[in-house]
Amino acid sequence: MEAASIVLFGATGDLAMRKLYPALFNLYMDGKIPSTFSVIGLGRREWTDEYFQSHIAKALNAFSRRKPDETLVREFVQAFRYCALDVNNSEDYTRLKELVVQREQQLGLAGNRLFYLSVGPEFFATIAEQLIQSGLGETAGWKRLVIEKPFGRDLASARELNEKLSHFFSEEEVFRIDHYLGKPMVQNLEVLEYSNPVIHALWSNRYIANVQITAAETVGVEERAGYYDKTGAIRDMFQNHMLQLLMMTTMHLPNPSTPEEVRRKKKSVLESLRPLQPEDIAAHVIRGQYQEGVIAGQAVQGYLDEPGIEPYSQNDTFIAAKLWIDNHFWKGIPIYIRTGKRMQEKSTRIVVQFKDPMESYNDPRHTTAEPNLLVIEINPNEGISLQLNTKDADHPGQFVPVRANSMTHAADMPEAYENLIFDALRGDATFFAHWDEVELSWAWVQPILEAFEANALPLYTYKSGSNGPEAAHELLGSDKWWLDKEPEVEAAGEKLQEKLVQI
What is the pTM of this model? Predict the structure, then answer.
């Protein structure tokens, strides 16, 4: 890998402290970045280099997945310098350029520059323009711009932002982070089909009954209330993370592919996604909002009682949808997606339910067996399991499901940001969102956003600690959500029920 300068906007923020510094440190420990590199941290605060370095050391001790060696930490933080910067002040960029060039000359770096924007999206275009006008984008090496979500809040704003960025950076130079794409098990989806002939043979509508993608959280909005109440589950999770999981699961790669081929296949999935007409949305999409309830034995408050939430907010904290991919491989197979806060358990998983083509278990002499399931666990555990059926030794004529598991220890696996920063430094865009994917996903979601804003769909409530609104289960018809755990039992005589928020 070529040595590079990393210019980090938002260096004093929470994301940098919890994710970015530990990721860089673990890459450094593993020898995945050159021993000689430069990081210039930027923020509004007036910090010295020494204070900035001590701040990074504290972050590593608090958040690194591996206990840091103090000697190695002292060596690592010497690569960091700090520069106070106002993103709107052109003079600050001139001063920044002088520092970047000075460090490149001191360390003998070739002029490769990675600009990481760990800031609000309202600053993306301004920073991109200032980088070019200041001359920071003029370098003997490569330049790359890494940006975090959200990339727009609807189709129009996403297009506007992309148009502005494209004036200063080419599409090949823009790396849009979706941290779900950095998770090791999600990256394994790329090779799951083509490297396993059994799965490759079964990966079509001939053998698959349905696909279920779940991302459930036990946490509420917590300190993100101001952001989340204007965003909701559909913008915070569904448009980006959930549709990326859909693409990664259903694209067909016959062999190892280039980043361009992966992106082409993902784009093809979205192009084949059946659009929702306004009159069909209510039958295919469920939105919900959590009430008070019990999680891990502790009573928790409802969404409307959270600090910073408007008392009559119609914001969605849960969304479930039934989708159809109208292509050769998936036509006729329902894809079920759901995500929500304050759910019964923290779990991100993909469940593929296989058909029983011979209906061999409908013999009345036998108890019906459960279907075969391929379960891909993404978070908090990582692994793959296959659910099969075997005879129940204690009950003749009946079957019991058994699991063949392959689980990994999360502590031993690189975190998402380690993988993504490593790829960005190498220029590998496989697991970054291309503009085509972003635009197509917003285009598909746009009618749902408009329906939500018009209150054209009921907003269901669900108890915290449950598996979501009952309507989300009714959405599946004769199918069912697999692997849901039973909610905790509340006080005797109290019944969990669903009701509509009065609009």
Answer: 0.91
